[in-house]
Design a protein that fits this description.
This protein has helices at about 10-25, 55-60, 80-85, 85-105, 140-160, 190-200, 225-240, 260-270, 295-300, 310-325; strands at about 1-5, 25-30, 45-50, 70, 110-115, 160-165, 170, 205, 220, 220-225, 245-250, 255, 275-280, 285-290. The chain is an alpha/beta fold. It is globular, with a radius of gyration of 19 Å.
Length: about 325
């Protein structure tokens, strides 16, 4: 099968591309490099510089006898989405509509969509399963839920098959160091912590220490990016074999607080990693922890790299290697 990966030069996308190539798929990447990097591109994949908001770029990609799409291209900062919703509407929602329309035009039947735990909003219970109500508290989460709903409608009217993968928090780097997973202007917790350890940033900003958690800081479910990549392959295989839509959470079912992540990172990096507390960010829940049993059962997938120290070490090794170049 020939797979089109939108956003395939990004942090998660490049790891998905590697997992697909390793499994034996032919891959074409469409990416505008706004957050990804050419350094993440693997030579076995064809690269098209283009944007999901640019219909000729999508047509150029879809003409290559594509069998399935893995759709990761999006803007993804929660904080930025609240400040600039129009940009997120344009890229995430309208760009996805353009992509889905071309998918229909070129008779591409399968799509794996990169969704998010942000669709749930403030948890009513922990861990969160797929039946949990979806009430996003930030615009980023709203865009992801909207795309899920669009795909459901297209599936019912145009006979496409959809896997919506609700990520929790991707972290870590490929243990083999390739792809490097470079991400421009990342505001995710672990990259920021390591940037402080290296000296790229002066300090870590902890947004809120008065949540109802064990240490007052936010708790998240961190899933290693290599495990996340494998789940995309499993989801694609499920669609092709079972001919059924699927929506699944992808997480480890284990919560780590900001302070816990910081403490472990200090031990691994042998750095003080200065930190300061800031007010909570709008729309941030206290805890987000997955129930991933649906993915375990239906996709026959389970994360392998669940140790927090391993996740941090894999990222730290990559950051140190990049600093030496």
């Amino acid at each position: 099968m020939h797979i089109l990966v939108t956003g395939g030069a990004g942090y998660i996308g490049s790891n998905v591309v590697k997992a697909l190539i390793t499994t034996g798929y032919q891959v074409t990447i469409l990416d505008n490099l706004s957050s990804g990097s050419r350094d993440n591109l693997l030579p076995q994949a064809e690269f098209i510089y283009g944007d999901i908001c640019h219909i000729p770029s999508l047509q150029r990609a879809c003409k290559k006898q594509i069998d399935a799409i893995i759709h990761l291209a999006a803007q993804k900062s929660v904080a930025h989405s609240m400040k600039d919703p129009s940009s997120y509407a344009d890229t995430n929602i309208i760009g996805s509509i353009h992509l889905i329309n071309q998918m229909v035009n070129y008779n591409i039947r399968f799509i794996v969509f990169s969704s998010s735990a942000a669709v749930y909003g403030i948890p009513h219970y922990i861990p969160i399963d797929e039946t949990h109500p979806t009430h996003p508290t930030n615009f980023y989460g709203f865009t992801k839920l909207t795309i899920e709903q669009l795909l459901e409608w297209y599936s019912s009217r145009k006979e496409i098959l959809v896997a919506s993968l609700r990520y929790f928090n991707a972290a870590g780097q490929d243990p083999e160091g390739s792809p490097p997973g470079i991400e421009r202007n990342s505001n995710n917790l672990l990259p920021v912590i390591l940037q402080v350890a290296i000296g790229i940033r002066s300090q870590l900003e902890i947004f809120g220490d008065d949540f109802k958690t064990t240490d007052g800081t936010g708790v998240r479910d961190y899933i290693h990016v290599s495990d996340l990549a494998q789940a995309h392959v499993k989801a694609l295989e499920y669609l092709v074999k079972e001919k059924k839509n699927i929506t699944v959470n992808l997480g480890t079912e284990k919560g780590i607080s900001v302070k816990e992540m910081l403490h472990i990172a200090r031990d691994i990096t042998h750095s003080t990693i200065p930190a300061t507390v800031r007010p909570r960010r709008e729309g941030d829940p206290a805890s987000l922890i997955a129930c991933s049993k649906h993915a375990y059962t239906l996709l026959k997938w389970k994360p392998q790299f669940t140790d927090t120290a391993f996740i941090i070490k894999s990222a730290w090794s990559q950051w140190m290697a990049l600093q030496k170049k």
